[in-house]
Amino acid sequence: MSDTANDYQGVATMDKISSLAKRRGFIFQSSEIYGGQSGAWDYGPLGIELKNRIMGFWWKEMTQLHDDIVGLDAAILMHSRVWEASGHVENFTDPLVDCKKCKSRFRADQIPEEKLSAKKCPDCGGELTDVRKFNLMFKSHIGAIEDEANIVYLRPETAQGIYVNYKNIIQSNRMKIPFGIAQVGKAFRNEIVTKNFIFRSREFEQMEMQYFVKPGTDEEWFNEWKKRRWAFYEKLGVKMDHLRWHQHGPDELAHYARDAYDIQYLFPMGWSELEGIHNRTDYDLSRHSQFSGKDLQYIDQEANERYLPFIVETSAGLTRSLLMILCDAYDEEKVADKGNDDDWRTVLRFHPAIAPITVAVLPLMKKDGLAELAEDIRNELKEDFATDYDQGGAIGRRYRRQDEAGTPFCVTIDYESKDNGSVTLRFRDSMEQVRVNRVELAERLRKEIKEYKRTKG
Ligand code: GAP
Prior knowledge:
The chain is of the alpha+beta class. The chain is built from 14 helices and 23 strands. It has helices at 14-23, 45-64, 80-85, 88-91, 113-117, 159-163, 166-173, 218-235, 283-292, 318-329, 370-382, 395-405, 415-420, 441-450; strands at residues 27-29, 41-43, 69-71, 93-98, 105-107, 132-135, 139-141, 151-153, 179-188, 203-213, 243-247, 259-267, 270-281, 298-300, 305-307, 310-317, 330-334, 344-348, 359-363, 387-389, 409-413, 422-427, 433-437. The strands form seven sheets. It has a seven-stranded mixed beta sheet with strand order 3-9-10-16-13-12-11. A five-stranded mixed beta sheet has the order 20-19-21-22-23, sandwiched between helices. Strands 5-4-6 form a three-stranded antiparallel beta sheet. A hairpin with a 6-residue loop joins strand 4 and strand 5 (105-107). Helix 2 packs across helix 10. The radius of gyration is 25 Å and the shape is globular. It starts with 13 loop residues before the first helix and ends in a 7-residue tail after the last helix. The mean pLDDT is 95. Bound molecules: glycyl-adenosine-5'-phosphate (GAP). Glycyl-adenosine-5'-phosphate binds at residues 157, 159, 189, 191, 200-201, 204, 206, 208, 273-276, 313, 315-317, 319-320.
């Protein structure tokens, strides 16, 4: 997964990220009061806002900005033959070994070669079992009878829901090749090892787009989609020197892929996969044709041709993107020199387009009508922006709380606001403050969001 952990020079650590995520209500351990459910996570008030906005950013990019891509929301529970056809029942496995002494469980491909061949546990030196294949799909049964005929799998990728609907979408929406189908949704994998917070979870979300192309044009489209996906992260405003390409070698390629590149991100634990771009050829559609007995060929009436399209897939983890955004945004900055804790602030430098709270409205005092005026201004902004309101404590403390939540703009209401209708607009990154007339506030915020360029951290 990660090869050069020391490349990371930033101030974030997974411990700091997970503790901030819990403290500020981004992410909680699932079923925490019962000791936790490993590999599953709950997204709190700020987490769900952030997740929705990352998803919205991706969805807009894929559908609104591409005339040739439409959306889909397929069911998680699908016919079990889907997973036989897709090759997941046979091939979606990880090599597993157990330590007979300490009972630890490992993915065989993640322990050093010399330990594996000597069958020595990397933790305690005890004897390891033989390597065996472990299927990552969660299996259950539909209905009251638990037999082979009723098996149902929790989908391990969203992609298959797209393939089985591809003909429906061509027919209902008159799509012509090349075209794409985008989907966001939950996926489940019974991962052998989960670590690094939400990075590798058993329940997670994916943002996948399958692009259907004429055979022979697949390489061209594969390169085009690599470019577009790289440009997406530039637009999202993340640190581009924390991104790199990794081409899959023959031993890494998934059973369906002819060529695959990962976009890796430099997380605190090292370079790790963020998104995969895959040339899946006509593997999926030919398998579904074979297993369902349905003709899934595309009919090009103009050219008088029939063929099975090739598929170029872009597959990003939504929850993994959220972790990437948290790591990317995290910064600690010295802002004073008084020799106490207040000298430093923790700040999440989210792009304003994805920040969970866009603008916080803070009355300088609760009294003298300032709170009422602030609430009034907040109500005005609410229609267009995600807002917060905070009237508790010293103004400096309140700014720090918003910095830690990643709120890009604070609006402070003071006595001058009562007199002349102006407010203070404070910028998270520079901590600069300017006076803005209340009537111009919404327009100014819109402009700041549109023109935002990260300059710090
Ligand atoms: N449809 C192709 C596919 O699923 P993948 O490389 O297995 O390809 C795509 O997964 C993306 O899904 C990964 O790049 C990652 O962002 C995310 N992902 C995969 N497994 C995950 C897990 N256990 N936890 C969180 N995200 C995961």
